[in-house]
Specification:
The protein is α+β, with helices and mostly antiparallel strands. The chain is built from six helices and eleven strands. The strands form four sheets. A four-stranded mixed beta sheet has the order 4-5-1-11, covered by helices on one side. The protein has a three-stranded antiparallel beta sheet with strand order 6-10-9. It has a two-stranded antiparallel ribbon with strand order 2-3.
Length: 252
């Protein structure tokens, strides 16, 4: 079986972040999938085997292939060589190899879309959601969102509330993932303020002790059914430019 070639190197300036997107349903060739499987570590193969449903198993495989191939665009590292570790709250980071550029990354997946956000030495997070998935939305907001967000959500016409819920949800998830503290950050202790003619803003309960000016947020609609949000901690140079890149995860 052929090995996946290391992809060509790409430039990643400090004031840029690259957001890679792939549709897992476009990758179904058994030969290609078996090649991706060779990328997995023993621990990841065990996790892959634990999925009960084919869709989850497939998305997990594509996600693990995506992060390795994407990272190899920014360091002279074979896609097979990457190893990862998680902090106490489950946020992944590069464990091996060492001596490479200080790459930061974050992953998210939902039905129909998998994304990987990459930048240099930054706190960052990404979340993507399928807005056509069944389940409660506004009811969840009333239990977990901040009072300001619930009030703004309820003030919208009924037909607009579901989309606004996912706007808040993806932003909140992206911030939580960027901080790397998981559900220890209460969702009702920070609020997002959305406007059609101004950038996304965040405010914090004093208990969180964070500075809203240090964070940049952006939202995207990569497809008609998907909502995506990105959170990036600003450095001295100000806002980061985000480039969206689509990939078919070539094995050639």
């Amino acid at each position: 079986m052929p090995r996946i070639a290391r992809p060509p190197l790409l430039s990643l300036p400090s004031a840029e972040a690259h957001l890679w997107c792939v549709c897992p349903q476009s990758l179904t060739d058994p030969f290609v999938l078996s090649t991706y499987y060779q990328l997995l570590s023993p621990e990841e193969r065990a996790q892959h085997a634990r999925f009960r449903f084919a869709e989850g198993k497939h998305e997990y495989l594509i996600t693990r292939a995506l992060v390795r191939i994407v990272l190899s665009h920014y360091a002279t590292v074979d896609p097979y060589a990457w190893r990862f570790e998680k902090n106490a709250y489950g946020k992944p980071a590069i464990a091996y190899p060492q001596g490479i550029p200080p790459l930061s990354f974050n992953l998210s997946h939902t039905h129909g879309l998998i994304v990987c956000l990459v930048a240099l030495n930054r706190e960052l997070g990404v979340d993507v959601e399928d807005m056509e998935q069944p389940g409660e939305t506004v009811e969840i907001a009333e239990h977990f969102f901040s009072p300001a967000e619930v009030q703004a959500l309820r003030a919208l016409p009924l037909e607009a509330q579901r989309e606004r819920f996912f706007a808040y949800w993806t932003l909140k998830e992206s911030y939580i993932k960027a901080r790397g503290l998981g559900v220890s950050l209460p969702l009702d202790q920070f609020s997002f303020h959305l406007s059609t003619d101004a950038p996304v803003r965040i405010s914090f309960d004093p208990l969180l002790a964070d500075d809203p000016h240090r964070w940049q947020f952006m939202q995207f609609r990569p497809t008609s059914r998907h909502m995506m949000a990105v959170a990036i901690r600003r450095e001295m140079e100000g806002d980061v430019q985000i480039q969206i890149r689509h990939t078919q995860l070539s094995i050639g």
